[in-house]
Specification:
By secondary structure, the protein is mainly α. The protein is built from 13 helices and no strands. It binds a DNA duplex through α2, α3, α6, α9 and α10.
DNA sequence: ACCCAGGTGGCCC
DNA sequence: GGGCCACATGGG
């Protein structure tokens, strides 16, 4: 199925007018984006916010501080994000990698050429495609589209794309849209906002939502 | 008492 | 290379 550029552009317009500018990622620094990207895996952002706030209060929202903090301490502070043992280990691994290779400067890694930076991130345990692309787009300002569960779900309903095929969904967006970092940032945020509100996991179609008319007329 | 959340890696076949 | 599964808390 060939996806028309105008179609995904219209989806964007509808979502933007329905929900307004989201202004993602909700973080003060690039490092905070990276931490949030790891912590929000399979977890609601609400749970992550609590932990980020705690890390700030404890002076633990920096690469060197996280490297120095004992596992038990990190686990304690990451408790409410769920999977806190894994996330403590993986967050420390990520920070250790930054410390050993980039003197704790995540910008040095993220400003490498896109393919090289992405490959490097994906080599780290606990950083998969979505997490890597979130870091690259929102912390590294690279024009790469982030695909998450909502994105797959929404797009599969609009265009008969298999749910779960990250690369296929990402390619659709890359081919259909201008290579624009700001657009990619806002579009992904809008898809998440829309997904949270109306696209339930077990619903076959987006019924009674702002994209309903596109479900009928969007495929040309 | 379920189902779900801004995933990922390790099995197994 | 796809289909399960563990990882774990918090909210509806």
């Amino acid at each position: 199925m060939i996806v028309q550029r105008v179609c995904l552009g219209k989806v964007y317009d509808v979502l933007l007018s329905a929900y307004g500018c989201q202004g993602w990622w909700p973080a003060e620094t690039a490092f905070e984006v990276c931490v949030g990207a790891i912590l929000t895996q399979q977890t609601s952002w609400k749970n992550v916010e609590r932990c980020i706030s705690t890390l700030k209060d404890e002076g633990l929202l920096s690469c060197s501080a996280i490297c120095d903090a004992p596992h038990r301490v990190m686990e304690h502070h990451l408790f409410s994000t769920g999977f806190y043992r894994q996330k403590s280990r993986r967050l420390k691994d990520f920070c250790k990698h930054l410390q050993e290779n980039y003197r704790c400067d995540e910008g040095k890694l993220l400003s490498r050429p896109l393919d090289a930076a992405r490959h490097e991130l994906l080599s780290l345990k606990g950083i998969g495609k979505e997490t890597a692309d979130s870091m690259l787009l929102y912390a590294g300002a690279h024009p790469i589209f982030v695909v998450d569960a909502y994105t797959c779900r929404i797009l599969s309903r609009l265009h008969s794309i298999p749910v779960g095929d990250y690369d296929a969904v990402q390619t659709v967006f890359h081919d259909a849209l201008p290579k624009d970092m700001g657009l990619y940032r806002e579009y992904h945020a809008l898809l998440v906002e829309h997904g949270k509100r109306t696209c339930l996991k077990n619903e076959p179609l987006c019924e009674n939502c702002v994209l309903r008319w596109i479900c009928f007329f969007g495929e040309k």
